[in-house]
Design goal:
- This is Isochorismate synthase.
- It holds the Pfam family Chorismate_bind.
- It comes from Arenibacter aquaticus.
- InterPro entries: ADC_synthase (IPR005801), Chorismate_C (IPR015890).
- This protein is α+β, with helices and mostly antiparallel strands and 369 residues long.
- The protein has one domain: Anthranilate synthase, CATH 3.60.120.
- The chain has seven helices and 19 strands.
- The strands form two sheets. Strands 3, 4, 5, 10, 11, 12, 13, 14, 16 and 17 form a ten-stranded antiparallel β-sheet that branches. The protein has a nine-stranded antiparallel β-sheet with strand order 6-2-1-8-9-18-19-7-15, sandwiched between helices.
- β10 and β11 form a beta hairpin.
- α2 crosses α7.
- The longest helix is centred in the first third of the chain and has 19 residues.
- It is globular, with a radius of gyration of 21 Å.
Length: 369
């Protein structure tokens, strides 16, 4: 990756101007979107174009970085092997006690029939001795199969992440989303074995997507659930694809967000439980982010009827949104790392605590290397 593209990111950060740099899963190209002023823009109807950053709570507005300038350059760096990191900050006794108490309360509400599933999260704080751009470069090297990003707005804050989960992709009238759940630590040469709790959790997400999109899309297909590796973790994933119906992008987003993978079932009841019992503000954690209505020029060959036999150009509109998982917020040389897990009737509180510790390693790996 050329130094100049990183220089542009660094210059925006130094001048306190909005910027986002990101790389899509399994790609080499890093794209940078720059806004040339510090104005704070919000999404109103998802007809806008730019880079969207949406919070968990859909009652709060999604932020839009205007694409005044866009740069792209390939990444050309050697990969870095993962070194297991033992979380060494933020796992204090009181924090553990509060998290386990919230889990037990969730299990009680599930047993009483109020909920089927609720996703509970926590935040841990550690020192951030590295510069933001250095952390971003480490994300790119460590997590080639994730959506890696650094996002900054002077009136909102600075976030970085490496998320494995697509929220929604749209190209013209085609859409794609995914059902992702279950978590196990990756061990070299060892295939994951999924428990009933994890399989049921993934099926809940798939069922929610089917029901939420029913009547809003013209067609829908769901792939077989398979194990997928993301960084040092395994998950269970199904891909959902289809054609749009008469409803627009805003209708689909509002129907899906937040999904059971980050909220719970039923959606509104689980969301209310989270807001009342987590004890902190998730902000943009478990929201979504990505390209909104980006225009892409496509060269198409002409038919033989065109005597000049020249290619003609068409413009297609693309949206690529990702769930904001495995992320952190940088505040005054401290990193707030956000982690969580799905709670069902089969959950064991101690196991859920350990799962969040495993998930925290995605960000700790780049802070503590």
């Amino acid at each position: 990756m050329s130094v100049s593209i990183l220089d542009r990111v660094d210059r925006q950060l130094s001048n306190s101007l909005p910027v986002v740099a990101y790389r899509k899963p399994n790609e080499k190209a890093v794209r940078v979107v720059l806004q040339n002023n510090s104005d704070l823009h919000y999404v109103e109807d998802y007809l806008e174009s730019g880079f969207v950053f949406a919070p968990f709570d859909s009652r709060d507005p999604a932020v839009l970085i205007k694409s005044h300038e866009i740069f792209q350059s390939d990444l050309d760096e050697g990969s870095i092997s993962l070194t297991p990191v033992v979380p060494n900050g933020g796992d204090k006794g009181l924090e553990r006690e509060n998290y386990l108490a919230a889990i037990n309360k969730g299990i009680t509400d599930i047993a009483s029939g109020k909920l089927e599933k609720v996703v509970l999260s926590r935040v841990l704080e550690v020192e951030a001795p590295k510069k933001p751009l250095a952390l971003f470069k480490e994300l790119l090297s460590l997590y080639p199969t994730a959506f890696c990003y650094i996002w900054f707005h002077p009136k909102v804050g600075l976030w970085l992440g490496a998320t494995p989960e697509i929220f929604l992709e749209m190209e013209n009238h085609r859409f794609r989303t995914m059902s992702l759940a279950g978590t196990q630590l990756y061990r070299d040469g060892v295939a994951p074995k999924w428990e009933i709790k994890e399989l049921e959790e993934q099926e809940m997400v798939t069922k929610f997507i089917r029901e939420s999109l029913s009547g809003k899309v013209a067609s829908m297909e769901v792939s077989e659930a398979k194990s997928t590796k993301a960084g040092n973790l395994w998950h269970i994933k199904s891909t959902v694809t289809g054609n749009m119906g008469k409803f627009g992008l805003a209708d689909i987003i509002n129907a899906l967000h937040p999904t059971p993978a980050v909220c719970g079932v039923p959606k509104e009841g689980a969301k209310e439980f989270i807001l009342n019992h987590e004890g902190y503000d998730r902000q943009f954690y478990t929201g979504f982010l990505g390209e909104l209505n980006f225009k892409e020029e496509v060269q198409r060959p002409t038919t033989r009827r065109n005597q000049e036999n020249r290619a003609y150009r068409t413009i297609k509109k693309k949206t690529s949104l990702y769930v904001n998982l495995r992320c952190m917020q940088l505040v005054d040389e401290r990193a707030k790392i956000y982690v969580g897990g799905g709670i069902t009737s089969r959950s064991v509180p101690e196991n859920e605590w350990e799962e969040t510790k495993a998930k925290s390693r995605t960000m700790l790996n780049i802070l503590c290397r």
